[in-house]
Amino acid sequence: MERQIINPWKWQEEFGYVQANEVSGAQRTLYCSGQAANDDQGAPMHPGDMRAQITLALDNLETLLKESKFEFKDIVRLNIFTTDVDKFLENYDAFITRLAEAGCRHTGCLIGVSRLAFPEMMIEVEATAAA
User: Fold this and answer.
1) Which of 54, 60, 62, 59 is nearest to 90 (CA)?
2) Vertex 104 angle, CA 39 and 98, to 5°
3) How far apart are CA 14 and CA 100, in angstroms?
4) Cα angle vertex 63, ends 62, 65, to 5°?
5) How far is CA 56 from the centre of its chain?
6) How far apart are CA 123 and CA 116, in angstroms?
7) Which residues, 6+ apart, have CB-to-CB distance to 43 below 8 Å?
8) Residue 20, SS3 per DSSP
9) Neighbours of 56 (CB within 10 A)
10) Fewer CB within 10 Å, N or C, the chain?
C-alpha cells in the first residue's frame, strides 16, 4: 500500500492531523463502528470524566484494530463525535499525543452532537484503516 499525505497548508500540523490521505494499492480496508468508553459488556464508563472517556475509547479502538491486525498508524480517517467540544479540546492532549506517538496521520472531523447512544457517553470515535 502507498499513502500520500496532501497538506496544502501547515496550520493543521499543530492539531496532529492531515488534510488528505491518498491511498493506492491497499489490500485491506477496515471500517470501524464508533468506539466509546464502554466496558467489555457494553456499559458506559466514566460518566462526566472526558479524559477517562477519551482514554478508554482509544483503548477500545486499539483493541479492535489489533484484533483485525491493524494499528493506529494504519488509520486514514478518524471522526470524533462529542457532546462537549470545549471539554474535549481541554483534554485534546490525551487524544492526539497517543495517536501521534503511534504514527497516526489521519484525516477527519470533530463534530459536536447533542447526545450519543447512552446519555453518559461524551465521546465516540469512528475510524477507517487501510493496509
Assistant:
1) 54
2) 50
3) 11
4) 65
5) 11
6) 8
7) none
8) strand
9) 20
10) N
Per the CB < 8 A criterion, the answer to whether 58 and 92 are in contact is: no
Residue 22 DSSP one-character state: E
Residue with cell 482509544: 58
Which residue's entry shows cell 485534546? 92
Please give the Cα distance from 58 to 46 (Å, whole number).
14
Q: How far are the Cα atoms of 24, 75, 86, 129 from residue 27, in angstroms, in the given order?
A: 9, 14, 38, 11
- This prediction has a pTM of 0.91
* Chain segment 34-90, per-residue pLDDT in tens: 999 999 999 999 999 999 999 999 999 999 999 999 999 999 999 999 999 999 999
Cell reading at 20: 488528505
Instruction: Look up residue 95 and give its three cell numbers.
Output: 487524544
